[in-house]
Amino acid sequence: MSPSASSTAGRAPRFAVVGVPGNRRVTLFQDAVRAAGLPAARVAPWLDVLRGEASFLPGETVRMDSPGEDTEVERLLRAVGDPARVEGTARWYAGFTSAVRTVARAAAAAGAELLDDPDDVAVLFDKRLCHAVLDGAGVPVPASPTSGVAAPVVRDWADVRGRMADHGMSRVFVKLAHGSSASGVLAVETAGPGRIRATTSVERDASGRLFNSLRVRRITTEPEIAAVVDALAPDGLHIERWLPKATRHGRATDLRVVVVAGRATHAVVRTSHSPMTNLHLGGERGDLDAVRSAVEAAGGSWSEALAVCERAAACFPDTLCVGVDLLPSTGWRRFAVGEVNAFGDLLPRLTGLPGSGAEGLDTYAAQVAAVQNRARNNRATATP
After folding, report:
1. Mean pLDDT throughout 237-249?
2. Which residue, 86, 229, 46, 206, is CA-closest to 154?
């Protein structure tokens, strides 16, 4: 949190949200603010931030949300006119992290409190840095030859093949270092000499440009895989061992767990016939109670699974809320963290886990409640 937090001690929060006006994320957060009996949050558009026009008020509690789903914001950040294009993520990262630091400076100058730390955000949006932070903290993560700032840059498909061979990896995920929502991800697997295939949602047009698609497809020729990876590589690539996930009814299964103020509050099961379980790519919500029962029946611990997520979130202590992608291994007894997401809370109508303190609250209401609780605690502490 920003150093100005002490200046707002004892006051009921007045929210400002940096986001895309009218976007469903902003709308859901506004609904949560109003349901808590607070004045509507003041919206500071990302477009204003990028144009140097954003400002904040003394005592405001500033929450940043995703800049996505705004064509003009995408154009300014990536210099790409079509938001479905995959290229430009390195430029996007540089522009976005600069914009986040602009917000932080403006909030500090106004005496406002920031709920998202700019240094945390910079790590969360670089998979190589995030993996290294998690691994260094003892959080279980898939093995990676690209973790941390000291790892050699992956220049092309030949480098990917070389890293796989050097580290004994026959199955890997190749990810854009600054990608999100499975954009630019390839699940690569080898099956003997000369046999290789990749599963991805990336499409190439006749001129070689890359586009996100809602259709997960399989590439079965190495030259085509190489062409896609070579086109992605200039934006930065991260490689992780492809861990075999637990399955239910023949579908790969993982979880998105939301952690608010250090506590796992919400969880959704995601299942898919493909390696990518993202709901927008055809993944489906699974039965959380059935997954919890499977974990316990296998001799695993559901509370430890949530604790893994909380340990991952603890690596980013100055950011109120993160979404953790939790990977259950075959057998349901062990868990690893695939990714930690700065804006991983878009789970409409999902209410809090039993015993989480967020029962009956959606992810946005849980964040509002956490800020209110902190304000009450500050008042109690300040009272003689």
Report:
1. 93
2. 229
